[in-house]
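Working notes for the structural subgroup meeting. M.R. asked for a predicted model of this chain before we commit to crystallization trials. I am recording the input and output together here so anyone reviewing the notebook later can reproduce the run.

Input as submitted:
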Amino acid sequence: MPQLFSVTDTALTKIKNMLSDQKDKKGLRIGLNTKGCAGLSYTMDYATNENIQECEKIEDYDIPLFIDNKAVMYIVGTEMDFIKEEFGERFVFNNPNQTSECGCGESFHVDP
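Returned structure, recorded in token form:
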């Protein structure tokens, strides 16, 4: 069975930096939202006691990651990375289940 969710060292470093000044947060929460022309987009927010009740906890790293239960079936095997480009930097998700994405890359589709 593939790993539920993995994070590259580069992304992990960025997440740690983000969390370093958020002492009241429990970690990072990943989910999905219905958005864009392809249907789904990733969401990220700080994990709190209130928003992790229905999440799968990933304990493979030295920071807590939480995956929204509604997103699990769509992101099994996904790798999260952080890239720096000429005009900015961003998190990217390499999802083996993704079957298409919109032209701008803001949303994606997974066949059931």
